[in-house]
Design brief:
3-stranded antiparallel beta sheet; 17 helices; alpha/beta
Length: about 425
């Protein structure tokens, strides 16, 4: 159902003609062509089809055609188009670090110049507004949240073997040790992802930093107030390495971890007998499960536990965020639509998708596992965004990713950490 604010968009159309809104709209000189708004993003394939379906009610209501262009070269293409004076009206960023770079270069339009801040505050909790803010200005309008701090397991196997779901890091490692003693391999893990190889490992390390040092250390690390060589960061690498570099803990050992594509890595979880019993990965990994696996019945999740007993485990997240590169009546109308519940409801009905919109509550999801993830997100005492996505690209999606691959492959940790830290661009 279209909510009241989006219904208002419908009511404005007769006042100014097809596809225009009563917000200082000037009709296009070429009245034979409908007005358009363009979006550039990194999502392609089925995801692009979903985006087009999500935008259709907006077009039906306003007459404004939404043209979405998905490209694997988003991170390089968008800055080139922006600086060349040919930007899209909006961009859908997979990494807010790039959004922040363009905002500081003056390429983005603050959302508060396009829409009332009160509308954004109604739609999103302060945490999400803060995550979309750069140097005091709000630029980011969130479309999706990915919960990363999840461990996947098979409840039928746990019940049959008498394994308890761990609630602390020590319990999780004790379960791993028990599995090893029984001649089993605890963890599925693969970090191969083409040019992006290593990101799976950075997720592990970020999750551990949050548990090892808390949110203060994490925030200072992201801001480079502490270096990669800091003891907490080094210890977090070592905790990860104790699993990823070990043929006892990780299926295939270091070579298997480096060479296994991340989407293939959970497959052994579903063999009989299982090739592994635990898999830490974000909610989107379920799209890579075998087709006959029923999520929520054949496979379940628990949150990656805290290291300190009796302490709440922080939640590591990622997500996609819209930002505007133009100020036009069409852009303003689409931004307003994206603050309504309509597109978010359509997204959660179409995909393995968690919405940050406040009106999409855990009971909005028909999939019980998505509902559980949404509840974890809603009840988390502390949430932090993926650090590698927030750091400068040369580090976060550069030396941090490649450094993890080097470390798992046997490189000296001190040298790896120093190399990552040295790569941080000056004045950033």
């Amino acid at each position: 159902m279209v909510n009241a604010r989006f219904q208002r968009l419908r009511s404005l159309i007769p006042l100014v003609g097809l596809g225009s809104l009563a917000i200082a709209c000037t009709p296009s000189p070429d009245t034979s062509r409908p007005p358009t708004v363009t979006i550039l993003g990194s999502i392609t394939g089925d995801g692009q089809t979903t985006i087009e379906q999500v935008m259709q009610p907006f077009t039906d209501a306003t007459g404004i055609e939404v043209i979405y262009e998905g490209t694997a070269n988003f991170a390089t293409l968008l800055p080139v188009r922006a600086t060349a004076g040919n930007p899209p009206d909006l961009a859908l960023f997979p990494q807010p670090g790039l959004m922040a770079d363009l905002a500081r270069q003056g390429e983005l339009v603050p959302l508060t110049e396009l829409i009332e801040r009160s509308q954004l505050e109604t739609a999103f909790a302060q945490t999400w507004l803060d995550l979309g803010t750069v140097d005091g200005e709000l630029y980011g309008l969130w479309s999706r949240a990915d919960v990363k701090s999840l461990v996947w397991y098979r409840p039928d196997v746990f019940e049959a073997e008498g394994y308890a779901v761990p609630t602390t890091w020590d319990e999780m490692m004790a379960l791993s040790d028990r599995l090893i003693s029984e001649g089993k391999t605890p963890w599925c893990l693969g970090i191969e992802s083409g040019a992006a190889s290593g990101w799976v490992g950075t997720d592990w390390i970020e999750d551990i930093v949050l548990r090892e040092g808390g949110t203060d250390i994490y925030d200072r690390w992201v801001a480079r107030d502490i270096p990669f060589t800091h003891p907490v960061i080094k210890t977090s690498f070592e905790r990860f390495g104790a699993i990823a570099r070990s043929s006892d803990y990780a299926l295939g050992g270091a070579i298997g971890v480096i060479s296994t594509p991340f989407g293939d890595s959970p497959q052994p979880l579903f063999s009989n007998p299982p090739g592994c019993y635990l898999h830490r990965q974000a909610n989107f990994i379920s799209t890579f499960f075998p087709e006959d696996v029923e999520v929520g019945t054949d496979v379940a999740i628990f949150p990656l536990p805290s290291i300190e007993p009796d302490s709440d485990a922080p939640l590591l997240i990622a997500g996609t965020v819209f930002a505007a590169l133009s100020d036009s009546p069409e852009t303003r109308a689409l931004v307003e639509y994206l603050t309504t519940v309509e597109p978010h409801q359509r997204w959660v009905e179409s995909e393995n998708y968690i919405s940050p919109h406040q009106s999409i509550t855990p009971d909005s999801y028909t999939n019980p596992l998505l509902s559980q993830q949404a509840e974890l997100l809603a009840n988390a005492t502390s949430i932090r965004f993926d650090a590698s996505d927030l750091m400068p690209g040369a580090v976060g999606t550069g030396t941090f990713w490649s450094g993890v691959v080097d470390y798992v492959g046997g490189a000296d940790l001190d040298g790896v950490l120093q190399a990552i830290d040295t790569s941080w661009p000056e004045n950033e």
